[in-house]
Every structure is written in C-alpha cells, then in structure tokens.
C-alpha cells in the first residue's frame, strides 16, 4: 500500500509541474499586457519598462517561469513588493498582496461549501439509490429514478435563484446565503448562511449519485458471487452490505473524488449565484482585472485539489479492492 501511494504522489507531482508550466505559458503570453494595464493612460516606454521590472515580468518567459517556480520552493524577492516567503505564488497585480494570502482568506468558504454539500448529497443520493436498487421495478424505484432524471437536468443558476426567492425572501424558511461568519466564530450563523447553497447543490448532485448507486447495485446484485452468498443461506442484509454494497462503491467513490476536487477548486457558478466569496468568486475577479498571478494561483489550487482527491480516491479504491494496488 505504501509503494502504491508513493507512486501516485510522485505521478501527481509531475502532473502539477506540467500544469503549472502550461498555465504559466497560456497566461503570460496573453495578448493583453498586464504591465501596460498597470501603467495607466499616460505611459512612456521608460515607465512601462519600470512597471514590468517592478512586477517581475521583464525577463524572457522561461526565466520568468523559473523565478516563479523558485519562489514556490524557496521564496522570491520583488523589486516593488519585497520578499515573498515560500511557498510564494507571486503578488497580485491589483491588490499588491501575496496571492497565497488571498487564496487562504477565501478558501474556508469554498471548503465549507464543498464539504457541507458533499455530506448532504452523498447521504441522500447513495441512500435513495440503495432503496431504488432493493425495490427494483416497484413504485419507489420508479419515483426515485424519475426524480433523479429531473434533478440531473436542473441548473444551479436557475434552482439557486428560485430557491433564494421563495425559501428566503418570500417564505423566510432559510436565511439568505452569506459567508460573513466562520465556523469557529459563530457555528450557528455559519450553518444557517450556507444551508441554502448546500440544499441547492444537493438537489443537483443527489440525482447523479442516486442513478449511479442504483445502476451499480443492480449490476452487482446479479453477480455470481452474490447469488452464491444467497444460496449459502446468508441473510439478505449480510449479502447486501457485505458483498453487493462493497462491490458497487468503487465507481461512486471515483465520482465523489472528482466532484469534491472540482468544488474545492472553485465552484464558480455556485458562488456567483449565491454571492459567496470563495475561490470561484476570486477567479472571476482576477479575470476581470487581468490579474495573471492570481489567475495562475487559483488554477493551480484547483488543479491541486483535483489531483489530491484523485490520490485519495486511489487509496480508498485500493482499500475496497486490493487488486487495484497491483496497477
């Protein structure tokens, strides 16, 4: 198991390095020069050169990338910003503060949104899928399948707006979404401020998990080893949870890891819909401001979250099915 994880971690490090190089190339070869934007309307060639030097973008592109990569591991000195301690993702062109500090300030909102909604949609999605599989072909199965089909066709920016209007503004059942209070500051306000986004995300994601769980369990329940367990006289509960359920969890764990990685990387549409100030909203602002270091930092955080959860998925998958460790 240890060697399996080491191989996955080394592979993830290489992937992140490649992603950082490609992202750096794409952003810093953009047609809109960030130095000219920062220079203002009256910009002489001398002033533009000084601005580029102060922003650290006056060197050739490979040298810029090397300096950026060096800053991630050992820190970096900027002419106008001073020293940036490792891990340094650069300074925001607009805010003149370290990119990592801005990301750290916004990350708690994104973590709360992702993990809280994941708890809701996994419990309801997997639970409903299990019931549908057990009651295959009956009324509960048909209702669950129809509801999941409707739910998977909904969009967050439609459901979110409708839910805020009725549940918060008209009926006052739930508070309007806000992230002004952290979990450690006021758990009650934190919970009530994120309950509506969790509920809406659960509607969208629960449908996928219901269909996936049902299809996997129906297929697993028809396998030879499950029928053999039944023939040996084991109880239906034992057959279901010890054999069928475990065999069906692999694909579900896989999509859960991908979904969590995507949400932690910044749920842009969700945060914009509910007015939350997480990584997604930060990336939108960076695009508007042409803030390339911030964009690069957010993309790498998103990529890192996805890669990290892929490693977690591989580890969980290896625990569920030891044959995976040989891959």
TrEMBL record:
Domain (ABC transmembrane type-1) ranges: 107-317
Entry's family note: Belongs to the binding-protein-dependent transport system permease family.
Transmembrane segments: 9-30, 111-134, 146-168, 188-207, 252-274, 294-320
PROSITE patterns: ABC_TM1
Primary localisation category: membrane
InterPro entries reported in the protein's UniProt record: BPD_transp_1_N (IPR045621), MetI-like (IPR000515), MetI-like_sf (IPR035906)
Keywords from the UniProt entry: Cell membrane, Membrane, Transmembrane, Transmembrane helix, Transport
The keyword Transmembrane is assigned to this record: yes
Name used for this protein in its record: ABC transporter permease
One GO cellular component term: plasma membrane
Protein species of origin: Streptomyces cellostaticus
GO annotation terms (biological process): transmembrane transport
């Amino acid at each position: 198991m240890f060697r399996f994880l080491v191989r996955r971690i080394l592979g993830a490090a290489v992937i992140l390095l490649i992603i950082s190089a490609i992202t750096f190339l794409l952003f810093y070869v953009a047609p809109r020069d960030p130095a000219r934007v920062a220079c203002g309307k009256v910009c002489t060639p001398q002033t533009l050169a000084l601005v580029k030097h102060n922003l650290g973008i006056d060197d050739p592109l490979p040298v810029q990338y090397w300096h950026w990569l060096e800053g991630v591991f050992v820190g970096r000195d900027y002419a106008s910003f001073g020293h940036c301690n490792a891990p340094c993702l650069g300074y925001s062109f607009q805010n003149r503060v370290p990119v990592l500090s801005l990301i750290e300030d916004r990350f708690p909102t994104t973590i709360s949104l992702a993990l809280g909604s994941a708890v809701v949609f996994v419990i309801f999605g997997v639970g409903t899928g299990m019931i549908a599989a057990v009651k295959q072909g009956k009324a509960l199965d048909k209702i669950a399948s129809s509801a999941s089909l409707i739910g998977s066709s909904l969009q967050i920016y439609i459901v979110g707006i409708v839910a805020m209007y009725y549940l918060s503004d008209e009926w006052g059942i739930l508070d309007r979404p806000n992230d002004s209070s952290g979990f450690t500051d006021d758990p009650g306000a934190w919970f009530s401020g994120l309950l509506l986004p969790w509920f809406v995300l659960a509607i969208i994601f629960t449908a996928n998990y219901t269909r996936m769980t049902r299809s996997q369990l129906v297929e697993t329940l028809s396998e030879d080893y499950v029928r053999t367990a039944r023939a040996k006289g084991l109880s239906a509960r034992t057959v279901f949870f010890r054999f069928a359920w475990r065999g069906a969890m692999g694909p579900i764990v896989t999509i859960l890891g991908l979904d969590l990685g995507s949400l932690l990387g910044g749920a842009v549409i969700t945060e914009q819909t509910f007015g939350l100030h997480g990584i997604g909203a930060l990336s939108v602002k960076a695009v508007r401001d042409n803030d390339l270091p911030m964009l690069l930092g957010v993309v790498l955080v998103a990529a890192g979250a996805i890669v990290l959860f892929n490693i977690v998925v591989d580890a969980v998958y290896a625990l569920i099915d030891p044959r995976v460790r040989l891959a």
